[in-house]
Amino acid sequence: MPIKIMKRHAFLFLGTFLVATGTAPIAAEGLSCFELRTYTANEGKLEALHSRFRDHTIGIFERHGMTNIGYWVPQQNDNHQLIYLLGYPSRKARDKAWEDFFGDADWKEAYAASIANGCLVKKIESVFLSPTDYSPPIRSSITEPNRAFELRTYTATPNNLSLLDARFRDHTVDLFAKHGMTNFAYFHLTEGQEGAENTLMYLLAHKSRKAAKESFDGFRKDPKWKAAHKASEEKAGGSLTMRGGVKSVFMNPTDYSQTKWTPFSLIMNNDPMNRHASSTNRRQFLQKTTTGITAVAAIAQAPFFINRAAADHHNESRLGFALVGLGGLATNQLAPAFAKTKHCRLSGVVSGTPAKIERWQKQYHLPAKNCYAYDTYDQIADNPDIDVIYIVLPNSMHAEYTIRAAQLGKHVLCEKPMANSAADCEAMIAACEQADRKLAIGYRCQFEPHHHQCIRFAQEETFGSIKMIEAGFGFKIGNPNQWRLKKSYAGGGALMDVGIYAIQACRYLAGEEPIEISATETKTDPVKFSEVDESITWSMKFKNGLNAYCSTTYAFNGINRFTAYGNQGWFGLNPAYAYNGITGTTSKHDAISFPAIDQFAAEMDDFALCIKNNRRSRVSGEEGLRDLWAIEAIYDSIQNGNTIHLS
């Protein structure tokens, strides 16, 4: 039996035990504020999101006073969603609980580990709810674990929400029960939210989707319903709901939902023999129970041993990467990162310097057949040890070597910037699509936990709607003869090299693309920077009205940050784009702090999983192309002195 199934069966067995021993369902007593949260997972990440909730999140929620009501996935889940309901004593208690949750060391560790191979969540939506006066007590239940749940949302016609409530209160709720439906909860949106004046949301439980149809067919034919429906509409002078104003989503409970089993912390707190519930862990509890539960403990521990074997299997099935270009980044960051990956291995190199090849071959025990010069690059096509080619060359060479790699049948991870022009980016994308090969760009910060936390702040509007972003990255460049100062190689100066990080940060915090860009350039050393830009400041306007003010330089050190300002506070990172040592703070004086990860290892592991699972990378070629559109607009604005409008 697969490990996931064994673990799941262990918990289901525990749920059966709890029913047999008479453990009561959990009522949401003392709760006045409820929150319905919808997470849209990135492609291929929903199972990892479930694992994080199952193994960490729900327990940490409980620790901070949040009541887990239920967790569901839509039966038609094309958008990879997780929907769940939490309860709190008040809105103030809710805000404090989430603040404590995000500061919890266990959560930070679990979160950082979960996103090592890429962000799990693309979008988070949240609505705050208050129970109607006719809602039954909102409770979790471990009975009938295979029920189908239905989330229904009604939009009332203007000024008719009270009449809609009256119909539910006096007729509908009882008639639902009469026809075999379980009334789980009824809510209004709390004041201040869009649609609060005309929205009713409620949850029903059915034995199955088929049973739901049969129940509703009987309900609609019921003479009492027909009479109540007619009377209510006559009183309102028309329909109580807007045309198309009834939405329904059928959902299945997750295997960790409180609608299927009772959490350990609540069992322990209800155990009269447990005087030290807070210090008793899961294993100790299992050991105190019957022989059957002891068997569950054995099953629950089994994955530890079997996962080691699985890890060995992963070692054998790691994808082989060949590094093309053995400069400082490849030597100091990428090569050491392979030792920290789970799905990758360094299997080859390409260089124009024989001494470098010899040194790398000895240091990393590479077979001679996997080491290539540029004039033998195309022979990689015949080497099954190499699955991925990682392009670490000067910018002007990215397009050629990416296109050739795709034609050789290899997947491509290319350092940023993707190329020197948007046209080259488009050619790279087309070549990889034609060859049916994956393409990703080396945007390491998109795999870094501090950045993910800031993205979450932006998505959830933790500090209100973001109105402005300040971002910048620069440093004092040294050797005047290096390729980064040659336009034919670099395509540009500070903007192409490090200013691109500020563009990226603004784009993923805004969640949109810029529609207007205006820029100016300053040169204090026209000799050193005769071919490329030295210092640039630019502004970007986004469709939602957000403005970003950015800067980059090769003239001095110290700029390495971003700050996002919302209408309820701010948050930011400083330093923001370093290989390590990233840290940040918020207007609440809370530190943004997570354990450091190897960003390059996380980036490569994510791409390996994209290949294995046949999914698109979140840092695909299209992501690189969008940055080049912005970069070209910045250069156009400098040259022409105009604001550039982007479609």
Quick summary:
The chain is of the alpha+beta class and 647 residues long. Helix content is 39%, strand content 23%.
Structure report:
The structure is a single chain. With 647 residues, the protein is an alpha+beta fold. The strands form 3 sheets. Strands 22-21-20-19-15-18-17-16-23 form a 9-stranded mixed sheet. A hairpin with a 6-residue loop joins β2 (67-74) and β3 (81-88). α1 runs antiparallel to α10, α9 crosses α10 and α14 runs antiparallel to α19 (621-640). The longest helix is centred in the middle third of the chain and has 26 residues, at 291-316. The protein is elongated, with a radius of gyration of 29 Å.
Compute the separation of the termini in Å.
Answer: 53 Å
Beta fraction: 15-25%
Note the overall shape: elongated
Report Rg: 29 Å
The main pleated sheet reads as: 9 strands, mixed
Strand order of the largest sheet: 22-21-20-19-15-18-17-16-23
Any descriptors?
647 residues, alpha+beta, nine-stranded mixed β-sheet, eight-stranded antiparallel beta barrel, 23 strands, disordered N terminus
What is the fold's blueprint, element by element?
Layout lengths: L2 H18 L12 E9 L4 H18 L3 E8 L6 E8 L2 H13 L1 H10 L6 E11 L16 E9 L4 H18 L3 E8 L9 E8 L2 H13 L1 H14 L4 E13 L10 H7 L11 H7 L2 H26 L2 E6 L3 H10 L6 E7 L3 H10 L7 E2 L15 E4 L6 H10 L3 E4 L7 H14 L3 E3 L7 H12 L5 E9 L12 H4 L3 H17 L3 E9 L12 E8 L4 E7 L6 E7 L2 E5 L10 E3 L4 E2 L6 H14 L8 H20 L3 E2 L2
Parallel strand pairs: 9-10, 9-12, 10-11, 12-13, 13-14, 15-18
Antiparallel strand pairs: 1-3, 1-4, 2-3, 2-8, 4-6, 5-7, 5-8, 6-7, 15-19, 16-17, 16-23, 17-18, 19-20, 20-21, 21-22
